[in-house]
Amino acid sequence: MAALFFAMGAALGSFFNVVALRYDPDKFLFARAVIGGRSHCPRCRAALRWFELIPLISFLAQLGRCRRCGVRISPRYFLVELTAGLLALIAFFRFGAPDVWGREMALASLWALVFLVLLIVALIDFRLTIIPDEANVAIVALGVGIAALSASNFGPVSGSFLGPYAMIFGARENMALNIAVAILAAAALFGTLVGVTRGRGMGLGDLKLAMALAVPFGWPDIILLSAFAFIIGASLGGAAILARRTTLKGALPFGPFLALAALIVFLWAKPLLAGYFSLFGIIPI
Questions:
Q1: How many other C-beta atoms can be found within 10 angstroms of the C-beta atom of residue 8?
Q2: pLDDT for 94-132, tens place per residue?
Q3: Residue 248's pLDDT is what?
Q4: Which of 3, 64, 137, 252 has the greatest number of C-beta atoms within 10 Å?
């Protein structure tokens, strides 16, 4: 089952990579006019056969080159497919590697799709500094599905990647209230930043993505997610300034930082908080 998750993730990653490369901000994210048509070699323009489009395998078998003209194919294709496969695998194992199709498998599938959508968000935002609204809608829809599957087990401790630390922040009475608080918190935090910077330091796309992520992650996970995103952004932005790749007035796409922060919360929220509190002599819960 793990191999199936990886293969499906890699296949979707291959498709999403094409979408990200061909995306036109003036058209629907999955507009057929944009992403339609056969894949082809960027140099000789020859249409690729089915056996040249097998995720990961075709790239390795062809040694990263076109079969016809021999031009080197960008390693981006292989790396995106590998990343997508690993994201799906992470979601699979995060829910206990179930071996039957049940609630856990459904949750793993939905979370895998959340991270695959975040992958396409990161690719597009990095290229165009735009976050498609369609991606945010998809995250919200997936979040509703996750909430529906998790509602029966929601409680003071369960239903949060922070584990027992979630109790500190309250709003654990029911899932609907929890998600509402998360959305309002994301809107207040990012909305304030958009207003203060007048859209230069933080854009509306980042605001909408943060609010969308509040649905699957809930409260208080969205606050920790946002904090990690700012830490990552500040660290990489500072490094870029020191390396003279940008300036203080330069713009960095924030979508990739939110996507990476979401993965960190998904995997390590509880142990990271335990380590943080231990620095102050507080016994981990």
A1: 19
A2: 886 666 668 888 999 999 999 999 999 999 999 999 999
A3: 54
A4: 252
Cα(47)–Cα(35) distance, integer angstroms: 15
Nearest residue to 108 (alpha-carbon basis) of 3, 5, 251: 5
Residue with tokens 């997508």: 84
Query: Structure tokens of 229?
Result: 């995103």
Q: How far apart are CA 139 and CA 117, in angstroms?
A: 7
> Cα(37)–Cα(19) distance, rounded to whole angstroms?
12
The CA distance from 40 to 148, in Å, is 42
Cα 234 off chain centre by: 19
pTM of this structure: 0.91
Distance between CA 219 and CA 183 in Å, rounded? 8
Asked if residues 89 and 9 have their Cβ atoms less than 8 Å apart, the reply is yes
In degrees and rounded to multiples of 5, residue 100 shows phi and psi of -135, 155
